[in-house]
Amino acid sequence: MKLSYHLVGLLAFGVGFNCVAAAHELPSMGEIGQFNVDERMRTLFTNPSNVKPLQKVSFAIKESVAQITPACPTLHTGNLYTLTNSQAGNINCYHFEITERSKTTAILVDQVGATNVDLSILRHNNDDTYTLLGSSKNPGNQDESVVILTEPGHYYWYIEVVESDGTPFNFGAAVATELDANEFNDTVASSTILPDRQNNIVGNMDSITDIDYFQFTAVRGQDLSLKLESTNINEYIFEIYNNGWMPIDKGKYIPVTGLQENQPINIRVRANTAISANPSNTYSLQVASIITSFSNHVVSGENGVIRIPYSAFSNPYLTTQAYHKLNWSLVLQDSTGAPVQGATATLKFVKDWYNPVDSMVGHQQTSNSDGIISGLVDLNLCDENEARVRHVDYSMGYKNTWESQFERGAWRIEIPTNVDLNDDEEVDLIGVGGDNFPWVHFAHICYQRLVSSTPS
Questions:
Q1: Which residues belong to CATH 2.60.120.380 in the chain?
Q2: CA 333, CA 351: separation in Å to the nearest integer?
C-alpha cells in the first residue's frame, strides 16, 4: 500500500511574513546582541540523547513547569528583535516562556541580499533535555515561520545562519491564547483515517518532502500501541501530535495512554531530509489497541469423548482429550474490556510430547468484529506414545471398563499484547501457559476397546 502526501507539511509551516506581520503587528524592539551558541551548546541541543524521541506517550499526565535555568538569554514574545553582522555558521539562541496553552507563531523575516537563515523552535524539558518542535528552512532569503501549539513551559528560538552578508534581519513570536477547536495544524485534513481495529500499514517516501499523515480515534479511550519498523529505519522520522509534533522512538512498541473516549490520535511518518529518499524502501506502521485480557477461552475435543480419568493417568493430568479434532476459541479485549477486531492469538500445539521440536505447530487466528478467535485443528494420524491404560466409565446404568491407546501431547495459547514493558525487544505475551505451568497436557485418543460392561 503506497501512501504519499507531498509538500503538505512544508506548506503548512512556510507562511510568508507579509500575512504574518500584518496579522500580529509585532512592534520592533530594535537591535539585540548576538548570543552565539558554542560547540558545547550545539552538542547539547543536537545530540540525539538530548533531543530525544518519546518512548511512551500519556495524554492524562500534564507535566508541570519546572524551574529551569535558561540555556540562552531570555526575550519576550509579542515583539520583533533585530540581529545584524551575522556570519555564515553562526548559531544564535534565545529563550522565551509560555505561561498558558496557546498557539505560537515564530517568525524570522526581512532577510535581504545574500542572507539565508533557518529557524527552529526547541522545548526545554523538565529533565534538561530538548525536543525539536518544528523547523523552517526555506531557500535563500525567504521568510521563515514555525506554527505550533504550546503548553506552559520554556522554549527557544534556534537560529542557524547558512549564508550572510551581514545585513540585519528580524525574528520574534506571536502568541494567541484564545484557541478554538480548529486551531490544530490543518495538515491533518490530509490524514489517512484508520478504522477501529488493529492496523498494519506499509508505506514509502517518494521524496524527501513526502509526509504520510494518519489519524486513529480511540473510540473507548482504550490504551494504544504504536510501532514503526523498516530495514532502512534511519530514512524515516516518526512523530505524534501532543501539543506539537513530538518525535517517537522507532523500532519499538510505544504505549499511548490516558486517552478519553473518541479522542483522535494524529501521527505522521516523514522523510529524514538528511538522507536521500529511496522510494523502493518501505516502512511498516502498526497502530493497535493494547490487548490486556481475554475471556471465554475454550480448547476441547468432540462431544462424547470417553475421557481417561486422573485415576488412570495422573502424571500429568490429561486436561484436554479428543478423537479427531480440537476446537479452540476465546475473546480478545482492550484496556476497557471491550472486544478488539484484527488482533491475533496462536494455539501452539505439540502433538508428540516426546518429540516437541518436530511435532509442534502454531495455529494463528485473527479476531473478528466481536473480538472472537476460533479455530479447528485436525489431529490426523494417531501414533501411540504411552502405555495403554484401563479405566472405568459409568453410562446408562452400566459400569464399563475401557482400555485406551493414546498419543500424549500438549498445547498453550499465546496472545501478543502489543507492548514491551521490560524492553527486551520482544512483545509481551498473555494467554494460557506461563512460567510455572508452560503447557496444558493433551491426549489424542487413538483407539478404545471395551473390556467389560456390567450393570452398576
A1: 189-289
A2: 29
